[in-house]
Every structure is written in C-alpha cells, then in structure tokens.
Amino acid sequence: MECYLDNSATTRCHESVIEKMSEAMRSDFGNPSSMHKKGIEAERYVKEATDTIAKVLKVDPKEILYTSGGTESDNLALIGVAEANKRAGRHIITTVYEHPAILETCKHLEELGYEVTYIPVDEFGVVRIDALKEALRDDTILVSMMYVNNEIGAVLPVEEVSGIIKDFNKNIIFHVDAIQAFGKYLIHPKKQGIDMLSVSGHKIHGPKGVGFLYVNSKVKIKPILHGGGQQKGMRSGTENVPGIAGLGVAVAECCGGLEEKVDRLYDLKEFFVREIEKLDGVTVNGYKDRRSAPHIVSASFEGVRAEVLLHALEDKGIYVSAGSACASNKPAVSKTLQAIGVKKELLDSTIRFSFSEDTTREELSYTIDILQDILPVLRKFTRH
C-alpha cells in the first residue's frame, strides 16, 4: 500500500489541471503579450484564471499578481512594500516561526537597514497578541504573518490581528502568507483586513512554479523584477500561461464544496490523532482539535530520530516530512518546535503528517499499524 502523507510539501496535480495545462501548451501556446490571434488566445487563459481567483477572494481582478510561487510572492510582498514605504518608516513585524521565504527575506531587509521585530508564539503555536501590541511603533510599516503554520498547523487569529494593527495605525500594511491556508479556509481579504496575500499553486493540487500575490489597490509597492513591464510593470517576464491556467482550475476545484472537504479532513485528523496518541512515547504538538488546521499533524516520537523514522516509513510506502519540506534536507533545528517549547530531546524526533482531499482513512489506519510495528524495533537499536 502507498500512503502519501506529505501534502503540505506538495500535492498531486489534479487531472483537470493537467488537461488545462496541456491544452495551453499544445494548442494555445502564444505569448500573451503578442497582438495576434495566438497571443489573444493565450491571454484568455490568464484572464479566465484571474477572474476565478478574484471571484473566490471577492477582490478586483486587477489586484492579482502572478508569481513563480510562494517564495516569490512573499519576497515581493516584503521587499516591494518596504522599499515603497521606507520614508514612512523602516520597522517590520513578523513572527519567530515563519517560513524561510519570510525569515530569510527579513534578514535581507535587516542588511538593508530595516529593523525587524520577531513576535513569539505560545505553546500551541498561536501568536502572542500582547507581544504584537507591544511591538507596534510609529515607524512600523509592515506586519507579515502566516495564516497556518506549515509545521504544526497553528492558526493565526487573522481578524483579531488585523484589527489590532489597523486600530494602531490604519496605514500599516498587513501581509498574510496563506500558502498552507488557502483551500482550507474561506478567505476574503477585504473583509478580514488583509492587504496582501500569498498563495502557491502546488499546495492546492495545482502545478509547481506558479502562485499569486493579492495586493490591495491602495497598497504602495515596488516591483522586484524589472524588464518588459508585464502585469502592469509589477512583475516583468512572460507570464507562465500553462501554469496560470492550471492554477485557475486548481483554485476553482479546491474552493468548491470547501466546507464538506474541510469537515472530512478534520474527521481524518481527529481519527489519526486519537490513534497515534495510543502509541507509546508519542506526543502530538499544538492543538489537536478544530483550533488547528485540518490537514497537518506534528508528532514527536521519543527515542527515534526523525530521519530514521522517515526512511523506515518510506520503506513501507508511507511518505512524510521531518518538519518543513523546504528545510527538511538541512541539518537545522526547527524554529517552530523551539518556539512552542518542545523538549530538547524531541526536537530531532518529530515528523509531520499532512493530508489532502485524496487521503483515506485506510491509509491512516495502515500508517498507525506500521508505526506500532516499527517503533519498538527502531527504539531497540537507538544509541543512548
């Protein structure tokens, strides 16, 4: 049996997405900036996807910018806003456990003379509201926080955070990294007070190498890529038409029947958490109920290194991550696990299981059975 439980790293592309992309590559392969028929046909794919995304978010289609994915969306949001608003201030606020696409960009901005405050989180991974209130300053120009933490599934109280920011200074720009949240939560940026929103295609059964950034029309932002002036000069470079076309289909499909899909994911998560906690020496990190995201379970396995367990599961056809996939091939301690106070001896013993709408209860039962069999064996051979 093969069990793919690494959906927070990437998801399987839906067949409808592949078909749309194939159509764009095989038949309507023109450059969307060309003025002839082939260019107009290609441009139609981009417009169709943009209209779909804008309708889902309830925003103006002109407020959608296509990028190469989550990392570029995050970079554009932070660097673009910082550079466009530096006369108003050079102070930025984020959290201690953001994705590297945010944290590394913040490091870059610090090198350019910006000051960044990193807000702590509680033992469940939820942002400390009191710390946010204390961090806000007259020269704060940007707050960037992730909607759902990619390692433990902690959820940001978006409306509360937005309210605090805007009550302090309505001109502070609020960016939300929604890469693990889009397709799991109903997101309406204008209603929730979100000024910018990052989304990645391959997390929602779309293609890799494409994503978008929602930018409220009132936000001052500068491009970080320069060239032919595509996308109204905000993101030069020929648009990835097949990717954008596939992304549009993925957005439509993942947001259709969303409530039912999310309920099913929570049912799977509750079953998995209940069963995995019956195993000896296993601790589930963060909230275990509906206060956390429906598709992520972080579990620490006492006496077993994460990398060893990951490959032991792989041998049985079960695919998981040791923390974030973007950092899982690096010998670094998880900032998220440190931030929530996971015991030192468990930092290198934590696995992330992440589900999608394709995940079945049978797969999860099989995973539990395998864990029950291999954990005693792995612990027996662990060096003390």
Commentary on this structure:
This protein is α/β, with parallel strands linked by helices. The protein folds into 2 domains: 132 residues, Aspartate Aminotransferase, domain 1; 241 residues, Aspartate Aminotransferase, domain 2. The chain is 39% helix and 14% strand. The strands form 3 sheets. It has a 7-stranded mixed beta sheet with strand order 2-8-7-6-5-3-4, with helices on both faces. The chain has a 3-stranded antiparallel beta sheet with strand order 9-10-12. Strands 1-11 form a two-stranded parallel sheet. Helix 6 links the parallel strand 5 and strand 6. The two termini are 33 Å apart.
Keywords summarizing the entry:
single chain; 384 residues; alpha/beta; Aspartate Aminotransferase, domain 1; Aspartate Aminotransferase, domain 2; seven-stranded mixed β-sheet; three-stranded antiparallel β-sheet; 12 strands; 14% strand
